[in-house]
Amino acid sequence: MLATRIIPCLDVKDNRVVKGIHFLNLRDAGDPVELGARYSDDGADELVFLDITATIRSRKTIVELVEKVAENVFIPFTVGGGIQTVEQMDELLRSGAEKVSVNTAAVQNPNLLTEAARRFGNQCVVLAIDARRSKKNPDKWQICVKAGSEPTDIDAVEWAAKGEKLGAGEILLTSMDADGTRAGYDIELTKAVSDTVNIPVIASGGAGTLEHLYEAIIDGGADAVLMASITHFENYTIKQMKEYLAGRGIPVNL
């Protein structure tokens, strides 16, 4: 069993890290460069940087900010938000990112995953999935695009499987229902996707306690856990998370 990765997420709007509940009611959480550097120093395994308004505003991810963050962190770094083309991916990777994350653009043009995997290798391509439980069929989850603002009829589990075949090397799976609630990850969703794909799944949305991280890994089958609220507002440190998981038999990089 590979070491489980602990990954803080920087959701950025107007050059500031923000965090809300169910993707709404955003509040300021600090400077992305300072937070990124802090997490890097504290022992995070990776970082995820998401320009959450880039797609809605139809603009590219802020390359200059990516460069500043990359200069101050010394761990792998994923960037997403507003990415539409392999040329934009190339620019971000050259700016310091190790991976690029796509959501809306991949739904609109699935071949983008294949093109990116061929050009950069699938280890650089992260398929981000924002999913919420379907009201029409409560046993299913539907994909939402444009920072969660537009629901689709696409089944999240089926899309994850298709994304893997198209070239994605990793799934960043966010439960919109659990996001920001600190009530725990959507274990059922996480397990459904983890059981379906053979690539790493990062559980996202809902972390509130150390127990929640353990549940996402053991019960949900996640290969990594993403968190924001519980690290940004200093409920727990990266060290506390890793020591807790290690104490419960989960392999982590201490």
Topology:
Elements: E1 5-13, E2 16-21, E3 24-30, H1 32-42, E4 47-51, H2 63-72, E5 77-80, H3 86-94, E6 99-102, H4 104-108, H5 111-120, E7 125-133, E8 141-145, E9 150-155, H6 156-166, E10 170-175, H7 187-196, E11 201-204, H8 210-218, E12 224-227, H9 229-232, H10 238-247
Helix pairs in contact: 1-2, 6-7
Q: Your description of this structure?
A:
The chain has 254 residues and is of the alpha/beta class. It has a single domain, classed as Aldolase class I (TIM Barrel, Alpha-Beta Barrel), CATH 3.20.20.70. 35% of the residues lie in helices and 27% in strands. An 8-stranded parallel barrel has the order 1-4-5-6-7-10-11-12, surrounded by 7 helices. Strand 2 and strand 3 form a beta hairpin. Helix 1 packs parallel to helix 2 and helix 6 runs parallel beside helix 7.
Question: Compute the gyration radius: what is it?
Answer: 16 Å
Report the total helices: 10
CATH architecture: Alpha-Beta Barrel
End-to-end separation in angstroms reads 15 Å
Strand fraction: 25-35%
Low-pLDDT runs = 55-59
Structural class: alpha/beta
DSSP strand count: 12
**Average pLDDT figure:** 89
CATH class: Alpha Beta
Strand order of the largest sheet: 1-4-5-6-7-10-11-12
Number of domains: 1
What is the N-to-C succession of helices and strands? EEEHEHEHEHHEEEHEHEHEHH
Main beta sheet:
8 strands, parallel, barrel
The level of helicity is: 25-40%
Topology-level CATH name: TIM Barrel
Q: CATH superfamily name?
A: Aldolase class I
Shape: globular
